[in-house]
Amino acid sequence: MLVGISFTHPYVLLLWPVILYLVFNWWKKGHQLHGVRLKAALALRFFMVTCLLLALAGLEFEYVINRQAVVFAVDVSASTEEVKKEAETWIKQAIAVKGNSDWAGVIAFGGEAMVEQPVSPELQFTRLETLPSPHATDIAAGLRLAGALLPGNARKRVVLISDGRQTTGDAVEAAKALKNQGVRVDVVPLKVSREREVLVSRLEAPEYSRQGEVVELKAVIESSFATGAVLRFFAGRNMILEQAVSLQAGENTFSVGVKENTPGFRVFRVVIEPFVDSNYRNNEAAAFTRVQGVPRILLVEGDGGEGKLLGKALAAAGFQVDLVTAERVPRTLAEFKQYATVVLANVPASALGERVMQTMRIAVRDLAMGLVMVGGEDSFGLGGYFKTPVEEALPVYMDLRHKEEVPSLGLVLVIDKSGSMSGGTGGVSKMELAKEAAIQATEILGPQDRIGVVAFDGRAGWVVPLQKLDDLREIQNLIGTIRASGGTDIYPGLNLAYEALKDAKTRLKHIILLTDGRSATSGDYQRLAEEMKKYKITLSTVAVGDDADTFLLSQLAEWGQGRYYFTDDIESIPRILTRETMLAARTYVVEETFTPKIGSNSPLVESLRSGVPALDGYVAVSPKETAEVSLVTHRDDPLLAHWQYGLGRTVAYTSDAAGRWSSRWVGRAGFARFWADLVTWTLPRDDTGLISVDTRLVGNRMEITAEVPFGTEESRVAEATIVGPELEGERVLLEPVGPGRFKGEFPSFDPGVYLIQVVLREGEKVIAAQSTGLAIPYSPEFRMRGTDPDFLHAIAEAGGGAVISEPREAFATNLAPVRGRTDWWPFFLMLAAFLLPFDVAVRRLWFSKEDWWRLRGFLAERLSNGEKVEDRSDETIGRLKRRKSEVARAKETLRMKVSTEEIKKIQGTPETQTQHGGQLPEQREDFTSKLLAAKKRWR
Hints:
Elements: E1 2-7, H1 16-29, H2 35-57, E2 59-65, E3 68-75, H3 84-96, E4 103-109, E5 113-120, H4 139-149, E6 155-162, H5 171-180, E7 183-189, E8 198-204, E9 208-210, E10 214-223, E11 227-235, E12 238-247, E13 250-259, E14 264-274, E15 284-292, E16 296-301, H6 308-316, E17 320-325, H7 333-336, E18 341-345, H8 349-352, H9 354-367, E19 370-374, H10 389-393, E20 396-397, E21 409-416, E22 424-425, E23 428-429, H11 430-444, E24 450-456, E25 460-468, H12 472-479, H13 490-501, E26 508-515, H14 525-534, E27 537-544, H15 550-559, E28 564-567, H16 573-585, E29 589-590, E30 597-598, E31 618-619, E32 622-623, E33 628-632, E34 638-645, E35 648-653, H17 663-666, H18 670-682, E36 692-698, E37 701-707, E38 716-723, E39 729-738, E40 741-747, E41 752-762, E42 765-776, H19 789-798, E43 818-823, H20 825-844, H21 849-862, H22 869-907, H23 910-916, H24 921-938
Helix pairs in contact: 1-2, 2-20, 4-5, 5-19, 6-18, 11-12, 11-16, 13-14, 21-22, 22-24
């Protein structure tokens, strides 16, 4: 309904009198027009100027808008998950009663807000599908996003559906802001029951303690009612106390003392198990203590007691050593943080696994843990560490780079691509891992080597014919085309590989067979193996899973003078093929007696200044560009290399420490001192007397405060590295907030253990470092109980709305009237532009009668039977010309006749003229004037 007219720039209308004066002045003095043309020009110019003025003034028509636009803002945080269905039903019922012209939309919010469905006149809502972080409730973010979605040409409303348990943000202020924007905020409470609730509020532990001291732990338990429960305390994985307790309504405090003899970063946990509880996910808490004492070393050994002699040497040097096998290696970052340094003594990568290696790398880079790798046939490249997280942390590459004198290798990979290879775990198939392994094998080989890939199912065929690695990318692309399908027949694939290798011009020839099944047909494998021996072709086999023909594959490896591997962990396939490729090259193990040479001047070789013992072998590697090589072999390969990796330090020692290659050195006194110096160099540079760190959870943010002694230089910078549950390190610069005091914040939404390393730098140099942690055992959503009606009422009041319960109230006619506006200035601007050519035409052009007749004839003929226009127009013009000539002749005849008679009448008869003796001058003038008047009249 139209209610008024308005102008965006009304002052432009003040130009109206000026424009009228200019138009009038033009009409009065400056025109050359007459009659109809003048009237038309005045009308067009007046109307055109009027349109321009209205357009420049911004003419708008105002009208009342009755349409409503409603956005439902739904709380989907963890505290409301049990009533999520009720919220969905409420929204569907509300949408069912909305008017045909009304609009609606839905957003969901938790830790952040997301658009579920945009505002639309035809909303089709069934259920909530977006997944905001459930570990927080930011009602303010939900209100802001809902308000942003509302269109301007409607009466606006936001319906908040929540339990009112805000963990971050300011919902009341957000509601006030919406009210000021003309948006009404109504609230629908979600009724979440927490009448019988028990939760662990916190676990308190001292930040530091000394080895052998008693650590006091205090657990605070909150309960909404009196009940019984079982309380358990843990130190790491070990339970230190279990007792039955009685809980009273309110806070309950329980304490226990733990004597800690193990130095390092210790994690303590408390778990409450109540007899009755409405939510069991908030029944745990954790705390950290750093136990100061002798540095604790984790020594991981491979098979055969590789770490026994090294463990004794380190213990003799005063370290506390935990000697374990790969199966007992820590799996979490918090467990790794108990140790100052990890030493890997001839441990294969497949025994550790990808996840452990990744955790180890992060512990070194972000938490300043040390890492040492000791050589052996199961370490470095031979251990399958090529392109692993551990290789990234170490100062050496696992493959040989810039080596010219290495024997050429002809390698053929015979890969099973039967249908069973499409199976796998964790979304990764055996086929994909086999292809990855084949691609990694191509990257290990050098330009003098040759590679071939045979894929078999019921039949065998070349994927990559035996060739040099001239186009590595193309070879890898071909490997990527392998697809799993069909049955399993091993013999044809092996035979193809043999036929290609027997004439290959390489010093070494090797076949690697990988399969997870049993061959459907038999073949004379022993005869084929004997033929391979004639051409010095070796064969290794890899059995994947229990369905593989392990007997046949082990027999083939024995006949082929190669190695047999069995794995039921498909993720180890790339590691196995990498190791086997390196072994086949026979360049990675150098078993020759040599005396190492001292390279750089490093504290790691201080004990060897008096003499370096001879060794009998090592694993060949390549040093990284920025690594420092302290010991060098007789072939100029690195024997001892070290570098700084992130906040931690790592060392690579390529010979062994078990006596196989170092038998001349193990029994000497300098052996223990050398390893003590080496491990000491890798220890974290913590100085608890110089820097102290405090962490706490404020809402959904982690607050980190670091204090250093007063008077430290202003050039020093404090930085915190935070590693969360997903092992993603984040760096936070701590801002100075006072003398020797730094502070920073980090958003932490997901529950889990957060380990923090704070360092104090001066330029690039680390002055001090300190480790701490913060545990978020459960979502902050579970810290509060039930619905908060008072807070919801405050939000509704601030937003100018009310607490509602009926779905029909979401579209109630209680919104303030809204006026809409339609801009008409574009219409008048276009109209003025349209009239401009006509104004020019009236003033500059004019049509005579003949022009109109021509135009009329042209149009008539154009609209007739479609004959050619130019022919008919010429005929018409000719006819008009003839008619014009006839009319002209008739008028001339009539004029001449009339003129003769009038002249005679005026002049009189000849007799009269003779009688009077001719005309007088006055008579002649009167005659002339009458004659001219007569001519003018007939024209």
